[in-house]
Amino acid sequence: MKKIMFGFSGYAMFVCLILSAGISNAQEIIVASASTNKPVVKDEIIITEGDKLAKATESKAEDDEEPAFTFSGSIDTYFHTTFKNQNSYYGDAYAPSSSFADLKGFGIGMVNLIASYSGDKAGFTADVVFGPRGQAAVFGTASGQAIINQAFAFYKFSDKLTLNLGQFNTFLGYEVISPAVNFHYSTSYLFSWGPFNHTGARLDYASENGLVAKLAIMNPTDLVEFNPVNTYTLGGQIGKTSDKGGIWVNFLYGDQDGTLDQDNSQYLDASAGSLFQADVTLGYNLTDKFYLGFNASSQSTATGEEVDINGDIVSSGGESSSFLGFAVYPKLTLSESFSVGLRAEYFQIKNNHLEIIGLDSNGDGSVMEFTLSGNYKVGGLTFIPEFRIDKTSEDSFFEGSTVKSVMPSLNLAAVYKF
Length: 418
Fold this sequence. Notes:
The protein is mainly beta.
Protein backbone atom coordinates (compact mmCIF):
# COMPACT_ATOMS: atom_id res chain seq x y z
CA MET A 1 0.00 0.00 0.00
CA LYS A 2 2.67 2.49 0.74
CA LYS A 3 6.23 3.15 1.79
CA ILE A 4 9.68 4.70 1.60
CA MET A 5 10.88 7.63 3.52
CA PHE A 6 12.75 8.77 7.50
CA GLY A 7 13.45 12.62 13.91
CA PHE A 8 13.73 12.01 17.14
CA SER A 9 11.36 13.80 19.54
CA GLY A 10 8.17 12.77 21.26
CA TYR A 11 9.44 9.80 23.32
CA ALA A 12 8.43 11.30 26.67
CA MET A 13 5.08 12.46 25.34
CA PHE A 14 4.22 8.96 24.09
CA VAL A 15 5.32 7.23 27.29
CA CYS A 16 3.17 9.63 29.30
CA LEU A 17 0.28 8.97 26.95
CA ILE A 18 0.54 5.21 27.46
CA LEU A 19 0.83 5.50 31.23
CA SER A 20 -2.09 7.88 31.48
CA ALA A 21 -4.18 5.54 29.37
CA GLY A 22 -3.48 2.67 31.78
CA ILE A 23 -1.78 0.49 29.22
CA SER A 24 0.70 -1.86 31.65
CA ASN A 25 -0.39 1.81 0.32
CA ALA A 26 1.21 0.96 -2.04
CA GLN A 27 4.14 2.71 -0.56
CA GLU A 28 5.78 5.35 -2.64
CA ILE A 29 8.76 4.49 -4.80
CA ILE A 30 10.84 7.54 -5.69
CA VAL A 31 13.27 7.21 -8.57
CA ALA A 32 15.73 9.98 -9.39
CA SER A 33 14.37 12.31 -12.10
CA ALA A 34 10.85 10.98 -11.60
CA SER A 35 8.11 12.40 -9.42
CA THR A 36 5.73 9.69 -8.16
CA ASN A 37 4.09 11.13 -5.42
CA LYS A 38 5.62 -3.34 7.44
CA PRO A 39 8.23 -11.11 11.57
CA VAL A 40 6.01 -13.14 12.98
CA VAL A 41 4.37 -11.32 15.83
CA LYS A 42 7.47 -11.43 17.94
CA ASP A 43 6.38 -14.08 20.41
CA GLU A 44 7.93 -16.19 17.64
CA ILE A 45 11.70 -16.42 17.26
CA ILE A 46 11.74 -16.63 13.46
CA ILE A 47 11.13 -13.31 11.76
CA THR A 48 9.14 -13.88 8.57
CA GLU A 49 6.72 -16.47 7.27
CA GLY A 50 9.34 -17.60 4.75
CA ASP A 51 11.97 -17.90 7.48
CA LYS A 52 9.56 -19.77 9.70
CA LEU A 53 8.58 -22.24 7.00
CA ALA A 54 12.20 -22.79 5.99
CA LYS A 55 13.05 -23.46 9.63
CA ALA A 56 10.15 -25.91 9.93
CA THR A 57 11.23 -27.85 6.85
CA GLU A 58 14.83 -27.80 8.05
CA SER A 59 13.75 -29.29 11.39
CA LYS A 60 11.63 -31.89 9.62
CA ALA A 61 14.57 -32.81 7.39
CA GLU A 62 16.80 -33.21 10.44
CA ASP A 63 14.20 -35.38 12.20
CA ASP A 64 13.67 -37.55 9.12
CA GLU A 65 17.34 -37.38 8.09
CA GLU A 66 16.22 -36.68 4.53
CA PRO A 67 15.16 -33.65 2.44
CA ALA A 68 11.73 -32.21 3.33
CA PHE A 69 9.07 -30.34 1.37
CA THR A 70 6.39 -28.25 3.12
CA PHE A 71 3.31 -26.52 1.70
CA SER A 72 1.18 -24.04 3.65
CA GLY A 73 -0.79 -20.85 3.23
CA SER A 74 -3.85 -18.81 4.16
CA ILE A 75 -6.88 -16.95 2.85
CA ASP A 76 -8.60 -13.95 4.43
CA THR A 77 -11.83 -12.02 3.93
CA TYR A 78 -13.45 -9.19 5.89
CA PHE A 79 -16.09 -6.50 6.35
CA HIS A 80 -14.92 -2.89 6.81
CA THR A 81 -16.67 0.38 7.64
CA THR A 82 -15.67 3.84 8.87
CA PHE A 83 -19.26 4.90 9.57
CA LYS A 84 -19.37 7.23 6.51
CA ASN A 85 -16.10 8.98 7.41
CA GLN A 86 -13.60 9.49 4.58
CA ASN A 87 -9.88 10.24 4.40
CA SER A 88 -8.72 13.50 2.80
CA TYR A 89 -5.18 12.17 2.26
CA TYR A 90 -5.87 8.65 1.05
CA GLY A 91 -7.75 9.11 -2.18
CA ASP A 92 -10.94 9.96 -0.23
CA ALA A 93 -10.93 6.33 0.92
CA TYR A 94 -13.10 5.03 3.73
CA ALA A 95 -10.04 4.01 5.73
CA PRO A 96 -7.15 5.42 7.78
CA SER A 97 -3.80 5.97 6.03
CA SER A 98 -2.38 2.56 6.85
CA SER A 99 -1.99 -0.60 4.80
CA PHE A 100 -4.63 -3.20 3.95
CA ALA A 101 -8.15 -3.69 5.41
CA ASP A 102 -9.14 -0.53 3.55
CA LEU A 103 -11.91 -1.61 1.14
CA LYS A 104 -15.44 -0.48 1.96
CA GLY A 105 -18.06 -3.10 2.79
CA PHE A 106 -17.35 -6.80 2.26
CA GLY A 107 -13.94 -7.41 0.73
CA ILE A 108 -11.22 -9.99 0.24
CA GLY A 109 -7.64 -9.80 1.40
CA MET A 110 -5.45 -12.34 -0.31
CA VAL A 111 -4.74 -15.97 -1.05
CA ASN A 112 -1.25 -16.88 0.18
CA LEU A 113 0.49 -20.09 -0.93
CA ILE A 114 3.92 -20.98 0.46
CA ALA A 115 6.15 -23.88 -0.60
CA SER A 116 9.49 -24.63 1.00
CA TYR A 117 12.12 -27.32 0.52
CA SER A 118 15.12 -28.03 2.72
CA GLY A 119 17.88 -30.47 1.97
CA ASP A 120 21.05 -31.28 3.84
CA LYS A 121 22.75 -28.06 2.78
CA ALA A 122 20.35 -26.06 0.60
CA GLY A 123 16.72 -25.27 -0.07
CA PHE A 124 14.24 -22.61 -1.12
CA THR A 125 11.06 -20.77 -0.18
CA ALA A 126 8.48 -19.81 -2.82
CA ASP A 127 5.67 -17.61 -1.49
CA VAL A 128 2.96 -16.25 -3.81
CA VAL A 129 0.01 -13.96 -3.09
CA PHE A 130 -3.18 -13.18 -5.00
CA GLY A 131 -5.74 -10.48 -4.22
CA PRO A 132 -5.82 -6.81 -3.13
CA ARG A 133 -3.72 -7.30 0.01
CA GLY A 134 -1.04 -9.20 -1.87
CA GLN A 135 -0.94 -6.69 -4.73
CA ALA A 136 -0.62 -3.79 -2.27
CA ALA A 137 2.23 -5.59 -0.50
CA VAL A 138 4.27 -6.32 -3.64
CA PHE A 139 3.84 -3.03 -5.46
CA GLY A 140 7.44 -2.39 -6.56
CA THR A 141 7.42 -4.72 -9.57
CA ALA A 142 8.52 -3.59 -13.01
CA SER A 143 6.42 -6.31 -14.65
CA GLY A 144 3.32 -5.37 -12.68
CA GLN A 145 2.64 -9.02 -11.79
CA ALA A 146 2.81 -8.39 -8.02
CA ILE A 147 2.25 -12.01 -7.03
CA ILE A 148 5.67 -13.08 -5.67
CA ASN A 149 5.82 -12.24 -1.99
CA GLN A 150 9.01 -14.19 -1.32
CA ALA A 151 11.30 -16.22 -3.57
CA PHE A 152 14.69 -17.05 -2.13
CA ALA A 153 17.15 -19.91 -2.07
CA PHE A 154 19.31 -20.64 0.94
CA TYR A 155 22.60 -22.40 1.59
CA LYS A 156 23.67 -23.58 5.04
CA PHE A 157 27.35 -23.06 5.71
CA SER A 158 26.77 -24.64 9.13
CA ASP A 159 24.03 -25.20 11.69
CA LYS A 160 24.50 -21.56 12.76
CA LEU A 161 25.16 -19.68 9.49
CA THR A 162 22.85 -19.51 6.46
CA LEU A 163 23.02 -17.47 3.24
CA ASN A 164 19.70 -16.40 1.67
CA LEU A 165 19.57 -15.04 -1.87
CA GLY A 166 16.47 -13.62 -3.53
CA GLN A 167 13.32 -11.77 -2.44
CA PHE A 168 12.24 -11.92 1.20
CA ASN A 169 9.91 -10.07 3.58
CA THR A 170 11.51 -7.36 5.68
CA PHE A 171 13.05 -8.24 9.03
CA LEU A 172 12.26 -4.79 10.46
CA GLY A 173 9.27 -4.14 12.65
CA TYR A 174 6.67 -6.00 14.65
CA GLU A 175 3.96 -6.74 12.09
CA VAL A 176 4.11 -8.65 8.80
CA ILE A 177 2.20 -8.87 5.53
CA SER A 178 0.39 -12.12 6.33
CA PRO A 179 -2.87 -11.67 8.32
CA ALA A 180 -2.42 -15.24 9.53
CA VAL A 181 0.58 -14.11 11.59
CA ASN A 182 -0.54 -10.70 12.90
CA PHE A 183 -2.92 -10.55 15.87
CA HIS A 184 -4.68 -7.43 14.55
CA TYR A 185 -6.24 -7.45 11.09
CA SER A 186 -5.56 -3.80 10.24
CA THR A 187 -1.93 -2.67 10.36
CA SER A 188 0.04 0.04 12.13
CA TYR A 189 1.49 3.20 10.59
CA LEU A 190 4.94 1.93 11.56
CA PHE A 191 4.43 -1.18 9.46
CA SER A 192 2.63 0.60 6.61
CA TRP A 193 5.34 3.20 6.02
CA GLY A 194 8.41 1.09 6.63
CA PRO A 195 9.72 -1.55 4.22
CA PHE A 196 7.66 -4.52 3.03
CA ASN A 197 10.05 -6.58 0.87
CA HIS A 198 13.72 -6.73 -0.05
CA THR A 199 15.66 -8.41 -2.83
CA GLY A 200 19.30 -9.19 -2.19
CA ALA A 201 21.69 -11.38 -0.23
CA ARG A 202 21.19 -11.92 3.50
CA LEU A 203 23.43 -13.76 5.94
CA ASP A 204 21.66 -15.19 9.00
CA TYR A 205 23.36 -16.28 12.22
CA ALA A 206 21.66 -18.13 15.08
CA SER A 207 23.51 -19.53 18.08
CA GLU A 208 22.38 -22.14 20.59
CA ASN A 209 22.18 -19.52 23.37
CA GLY A 210 19.56 -17.44 21.51
CA LEU A 211 21.81 -14.82 19.92
CA VAL A 212 20.62 -14.01 16.38
CA ALA A 213 21.97 -11.66 13.72
CA LYS A 214 21.40 -10.72 10.08
CA LEU A 215 23.49 -8.78 7.59
CA ALA A 216 22.17 -7.96 4.12
CA ILE A 217 23.01 -6.06 0.94
CA MET A 218 19.86 -5.33 -1.05
CA ASN A 219 18.19 -3.32 -3.78
CA PRO A 220 16.42 -0.17 -2.61
CA THR A 221 13.42 -1.15 -0.50
CA ASP A 222 10.53 -2.81 -2.36
CA LEU A 223 12.28 -2.75 -5.76
CA VAL A 224 11.94 -6.50 -5.92
CA GLU A 225 12.45 -7.73 -9.49
CA PHE A 226 15.64 -5.87 -10.35
CA ASN A 227 17.53 -2.67 -9.51
CA PRO A 228 16.82 0.21 -11.92
CA VAL A 229 18.66 2.91 -9.92
CA ASN A 230 22.10 1.33 -9.31
CA THR A 231 22.28 2.13 -5.61
CA TYR A 232 22.11 -0.45 -2.82
CA THR A 233 20.83 -0.65 0.75
CA LEU A 234 22.58 -2.18 3.73
CA GLY A 235 20.47 -3.90 6.38
CA GLY A 236 21.24 -5.54 9.67
CA GLN A 237 19.81 -7.06 12.81
CA ILE A 238 21.02 -8.28 16.16
CA GLY A 239 18.77 -9.92 18.72
CA LYS A 240 18.49 -12.14 21.74
CA THR A 241 15.75 -14.73 22.10
CA SER A 242 14.58 -17.07 24.83
CA ASP A 243 11.65 -19.33 25.62
CA LYS A 244 9.75 -16.25 26.86
CA GLY A 245 10.32 -14.06 23.78
CA GLY A 246 13.04 -11.79 22.45
CA ILE A 247 14.36 -8.38 21.49
CA TRP A 248 15.58 -7.35 18.03
CA VAL A 249 17.47 -4.21 16.93
CA ASN A 250 17.30 -3.54 13.17
CA PHE A 251 18.57 -0.95 10.73
CA LEU A 252 18.51 0.05 7.05
CA TYR A 253 20.80 2.51 5.28
CA GLY A 254 21.06 3.46 1.63
CA ASP A 255 20.03 5.74 -1.23
CA GLN A 256 16.56 4.65 -2.32
CA ASP A 257 16.16 6.50 -5.63
CA GLY A 258 19.62 6.63 -7.21
CA THR A 259 21.63 9.72 -8.11
CA LEU A 260 21.26 12.25 -10.90
CA ASP A 261 23.28 11.90 -14.10
CA GLN A 262 24.50 15.16 -15.65
CA ASP A 263 24.03 13.80 -19.16
CA ASN A 264 20.47 12.61 -18.61
CA SER A 265 19.00 15.26 -16.31
CA GLN A 266 16.97 18.36 -16.93
CA TYR A 267 15.73 21.37 -14.99
CA LEU A 268 13.65 20.49 -11.89
CA ASP A 269 14.79 16.86 -11.78
CA ALA A 270 15.54 15.90 -8.17
CA SER A 271 16.84 13.01 -6.10
CA ALA A 272 16.48 12.42 -2.37
CA GLY A 273 19.46 11.69 -0.13
CA SER A 274 20.17 8.47 1.74
CA LEU A 275 17.57 6.86 3.96
CA PHE A 276 18.34 5.61 7.46
CA GLN A 277 15.95 3.62 9.63
CA ALA A 278 16.56 2.29 13.13
CA ASP A 279 14.01 -0.08 14.62
CA VAL A 280 13.62 -1.85 17.96
CA THR A 281 11.14 -4.69 18.42
CA LEU A 282 10.50 -6.86 21.44
CA GLY A 283 7.91 -9.30 22.72
CA TYR A 284 7.71 -11.36 25.90
CA ASN A 285 5.26 -13.70 27.58
CA LEU A 286 5.20 -12.06 31.02
CA THR A 287 2.85 -14.76 32.35
CA ASP A 288 1.13 -17.81 30.89
CA LYS A 289 -1.77 -15.58 29.83
CA PHE A 290 -0.27 -12.10 29.34
CA TYR A 291 2.02 -11.17 26.45
CA LEU A 292 3.49 -7.70 25.79
CA GLY A 293 5.03 -6.52 22.52
CA PHE A 294 6.66 -3.20 21.65
CA ASN A 295 7.97 -1.51 18.52
CA ALA A 296 9.80 1.81 18.11
CA SER A 297 11.15 3.06 14.80
CA SER A 298 12.75 6.21 13.40
CA GLN A 299 13.23 6.79 9.69
CA SER A 300 14.92 9.81 8.06
CA THR A 301 15.81 10.84 4.54
CA ALA A 302 18.66 13.28 4.00
CA THR A 303 18.42 16.20 1.59
CA GLY A 304 19.56 15.24 -1.87
CA GLU A 305 20.32 17.00 -5.13
CA GLU A 306 18.47 18.76 -7.92
CA VAL A 307 19.05 20.31 -11.34
CA ASP A 308 19.08 24.11 -11.32
CA ILE A 309 18.01 26.48 -14.11
CA ASN A 310 21.52 26.31 -15.59
CA GLY A 311 21.34 22.54 -15.90
CA ASP A 312 23.83 21.96 -13.10
CA ILE A 313 23.35 19.33 -10.39
CA VAL A 314 23.40 21.11 -7.02
CA SER A 315 22.59 20.26 -3.43
CA SER A 316 18.90 20.62 -2.62
CA GLY A 317 19.56 22.32 0.71
CA GLY A 318 17.00 22.46 3.47
CA GLU A 319 16.54 19.93 6.26
CA SER A 320 16.11 16.19 6.31
CA SER A 321 12.63 14.74 6.73
CA SER A 322 11.64 11.98 9.10
CA PHE A 323 9.08 9.94 10.95
CA LEU A 324 9.18 8.59 14.49
CA GLY A 325 6.77 6.14 16.06
CA PHE A 326 6.03 3.83 18.98
CA ALA A 327 3.51 1.05 19.44
CA VAL A 328 2.68 -1.28 22.35
CA TYR A 329 0.88 -4.61 21.95
CA PRO A 330 -0.57 -6.08 25.17
CA LYS A 331 -2.42 -9.38 24.69
CA LEU A 332 -4.46 -11.42 27.16
CA THR A 333 -5.28 -15.08 26.52
CA LEU A 334 -8.63 -15.88 28.11
CA SER A 335 -8.99 -19.47 26.90
CA GLU A 336 -7.51 -21.91 24.41
CA SER A 337 -9.76 -20.48 21.71
CA PHE A 338 -10.10 -16.78 22.60
CA SER A 339 -7.72 -13.91 23.29
CA VAL A 340 -8.01 -10.12 23.24
CA GLY A 341 -5.32 -7.59 22.40
CA LEU A 342 -4.69 -3.86 22.03
CA ARG A 343 -2.42 -1.88 19.75
CA ALA A 344 -1.71 1.67 20.96
CA GLU A 345 0.43 3.68 18.54
CA TYR A 346 1.87 7.18 18.19
CA PHE A 347 3.29 8.21 14.81
CA GLN A 348 4.94 11.59 14.13
CA ILE A 349 5.91 13.17 10.79
CA LYS A 350 8.48 15.96 10.40
CA ASN A 351 9.21 18.27 7.46
CA ASN A 352 6.69 16.77 4.99
CA HIS A 353 8.26 13.32 5.14
CA LEU A 354 4.90 11.73 4.28
CA GLU A 355 1.70 13.37 3.08
CA ILE A 356 -0.65 10.81 4.61
CA ILE A 357 -2.34 12.97 7.29
CA GLY A 358 -2.96 16.67 7.81
CA LEU A 359 0.26 18.62 8.49
CA ASP A 360 0.85 22.13 9.86
CA SER A 361 2.60 24.95 8.04
CA ASN A 362 6.01 23.46 8.92
CA GLY A 363 5.11 20.10 7.41
CA ASP A 364 4.74 18.47 10.84
CA GLY A 365 1.92 16.33 12.13
CA SER A 366 1.08 13.27 14.20
CA VAL A 367 -1.50 10.55 14.61
CA MET A 368 -2.50 8.28 17.47
CA GLU A 369 -4.40 5.06 16.84
CA PHE A 370 -5.90 2.56 19.25
CA THR A 371 -7.00 -0.84 17.93
CA LEU A 372 -8.85 -3.35 20.09
CA SER A 373 -9.10 -6.84 18.57
CA GLY A 374 -10.31 -10.27 19.55
CA ASN A 375 -9.08 -13.58 18.16
CA TYR A 376 -11.46 -16.55 18.26
CA LYS A 377 -9.91 -19.73 16.87
CA VAL A 378 -11.70 -22.80 15.56
CA GLY A 379 -9.17 -25.21 14.09
CA GLY A 380 -7.33 -23.33 11.34
CA LEU A 381 -9.93 -20.54 11.25
CA THR A 382 -9.54 -17.29 13.21
CA PHE A 383 -12.36 -14.75 13.55
CA ILE A 384 -11.07 -11.21 14.23
CA PRO A 385 -13.56 -8.56 15.38
CA GLU A 386 -11.72 -5.23 15.57
CA PHE A 387 -12.57 -1.65 16.54
CA ARG A 388 -10.10 1.14 15.76
CA ILE A 389 -9.87 4.90 16.44
CA ASP A 390 -7.43 7.19 14.57
CA LYS A 391 -6.83 10.73 15.94
CA THR A 392 -4.66 13.19 13.98
CA SER A 393 -3.12 16.47 15.16
CA GLU A 394 -4.64 18.29 12.16
CA ASP A 395 -7.95 17.67 10.40
CA SER A 396 -7.44 14.69 8.09
CA PHE A 397 -10.92 13.20 7.65
CA PHE A 398 -14.38 14.36 6.62
CA GLU A 399 -18.01 13.35 6.60
CA GLY A 400 -19.97 15.28 4.01
CA SER A 401 -18.96 18.94 4.49
CA THR A 402 -17.68 18.43 8.04
CA VAL A 403 -13.90 18.10 8.51
CA LYS A 404 -12.63 15.98 11.39
CA SER A 405 -9.48 14.86 13.17
CA VAL A 406 -10.97 11.52 14.29
CA MET A 407 -11.88 8.42 12.27
CA PRO A 408 -13.52 5.37 13.85
CA SER A 409 -13.46 2.09 11.92
CA LEU A 410 -14.74 -1.44 12.36
CA ASN A 411 -13.34 -4.65 10.84
CA LEU A 412 -14.82 -8.14 11.04
CA ALA A 413 -12.32 -10.56 9.51
CA ALA A 414 -12.01 -14.28 8.94
CA VAL A 415 -8.55 -15.78 8.34
CA TYR A 416 -7.97 -19.46 7.58
CA LYS A 417 -4.43 -20.82 7.84
CA PHE A 418 -3.36 -24.28 6.69
